[in-house]
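[Meeting: bench + compute handoff]

Bench side (C.D.) handed over the final construct sequence. Compute side (W.E.) agreed to return the predicted structure before the next meeting so the bench team could plan truncations. Sequence as handed over:
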Amino acid sequence: MNRRTMLLLISAAAGGVAISTSYLLLRLLDQSGGQAGVERNYVVETVKEGLTIPWEIDFISSDEALITERPGRVVLLTLSTGRSQVLGQIDVAHVGEGGLLGLAHSELGPRPITYYTYRDGSRLYNRVQLWDSLEFKEGVVLLDRIPAASVHDGGRIKIGPDARLYITTGDAANPESAQDLNSTAGKILRISVDGSIPGDNPFKSSPIYSYGHRNPQGLSWRRGGEQLFATEHGPSGEMGLVANDEVNRIVPGGNYGWPRVVGARGVEGFVDPVYHSGNETWAPSGCTFYYGSDFPQWDNSLFFAALRGEHLHRIAISEDGTRVVESEKLLQGEYGRLRNVVQGPDGLLYILTSNRDGRGSVRPGDDKLLRLAPRR
């Protein structure tokens, strides 16, 4: 926000124009990078450089993390030393936005679970696979033939508080598939870690948990496990529409509108986003709730990484999960495209950049794993 706009808003509020203090603060923070003249309470540390289009980071111990690279590699990183090694190379179709994407792990082993794109003849599909070990040689397919394309592949997988596996899928460049309950495209799916369909899913004998999604990219549960939120990319030219990226609270069986409804329109039968970008494009990706004492002012905030927006976005959501009460942008333009953010076992925030994916400007050392630590 420029100085003139800021002064106009303040003058309007002082002159009796109906602008609430909370709204004014929200806009100041949202448009000024969240700094508002206040010294940063954090420092940015580089944990690892030289990654190749990293997509997911999953901590398997207090000092070890698995990182997926979209061309098919799984990297084991030791945080205390910064050393890394390639554990396995999965045969993937690294086409456009496809390739090796999400990763989670079962507590038994741990046995890793991956989401990746593959080619069958002339067709592309996405697959969810549970591996026998960290060697990534043998495993069992949990869910297969999820529609894929060079764009809109979803790809985030997370084991929820209920011990079920949640999977985001994109519309694979076929918008109408998001409304088709016979297709796994454009959905958030929910299965058991053995691949079976939970009996309490909203649609009988179906892995579909919610639908009407264009390209959901992030999943995170609020403390207590009762509120699930997802980030989602809005349109980029379809039907002449752009922007309108979303943060949604996911409810079982909910229809989130794509391609019938974009943004918060209040249309009966569709679930409106809790937060959306309007005419701005964020391209939100991975997200996480932060809980901890290192950044007490951020406690209970949802963070999400922005690709096109090139920033780390923080929002505070009302206790009932229906509205955003605070918003700020961190690291605006400093590290380029950001792919993911997770809270590590040490309580700090870890961020993956994505500048080598063909859509960003490659910077020295890219791609990187960054860490936000408190300023001492």
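W.E. noted at the follow-up: The chain has two helices and 24 strands. C.D. will use this when planning the next construct.
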